[in-house]
Please model this.
Amino acid sequence: MSEDVIHIPAATDQSVSELSELSKRGYQLLKEGKIPEAMGCFEKILQTDESNNYALVGMGDAARKRNSFRDAVAYYQRCLSHHPGNNYALFGLADCYKALNQYHKAIEIWEQYLIHDDKNITVLTRVADAYRKVRDFKHSKAVYLRVMEMENNNPYAIIGLGHLHYDFKEYRDALFYWEKMLETNKEGVDIRVLTSIGNCHRKLKTFEKGIPYFEKALQRDHHNFYALFGLADCYRGLNQQYRSLDYWNRILEQDPRNKVILTRAGDAYRNLNDYEQASDYYRRALNIEFDTYAVLGLAVMSKARGKHDEAIESLCRLIQQDPKNYRFYIEIADCCVKKGDRHKAIEFLGEFQKLGIRNNNVSEFMDRLCS
Model:
């Protein structure tokens, strides 16, 4: 008996040591990206100790690295059923819910994590991001600002606040935070900060101020879509169509079947009175699939060429697709006026007003016709 009493603890100590070594080896393999080998280590541990928290978290982390988020969720939940409050399992589980776009669940788990560690900036910024994703402006801003109180120039909080205000169309506030990001890191700032600042100016219609930021982004990446689009749209806003075309066409070199860009380029050619090129671009867009703006562009050109009935016919078809778009009614009314039929123009504008939608452009046109 005495030999048995001495022998059992010795074997237990040895097995614990073996499990510990397997665990360390598994996590090292995870760091090296050798996921199947790491899982092999964790599976050996679970054969001996099915509720081992290190192995369950390790399996969850391995599944998460493979983007097998639902499998990872199962491992983290299994760990938490045996070890409630395990920070690593909570962190991994919340990240999985975030990856699965289940932001409310992610927030709930991260809030549990913060009970044990309420100063963790990484988790706090993730919570703020998740609130932003579910469009909870108040809570998102509060958590980002809490991070800023702890670390004044935290880049994740600054960028998050920029995105938050931009998402809610508060472009001046968004600009404040992204410019703050630029001030703290002028040389190595992320290219996305440059395009974000440019986009704020684009939305604020301060196009001249936005152009330099898009140009700086383009210097870093000559094919950056957002920089090319931003420059094209800024020059469009400044009514410098010939300059916008350079950038629309550079995008089309990379993506010749981009329907939106084809219609934008078509609009630019139309505004330059190059109807042949405009028609070509609009028809290329329509060959991809139906596009309202391509049909509208062709109708406006028909009107400009004096083909008013052809334009009206196209515009009436667009109204069937989108009866609340005021632009179609104005274009039809303008065609009617040019044909000398003021009464018909008033009738079409009246059809729009019967929808109960208030639009200043329609009201002003109606007032001119009725005066």
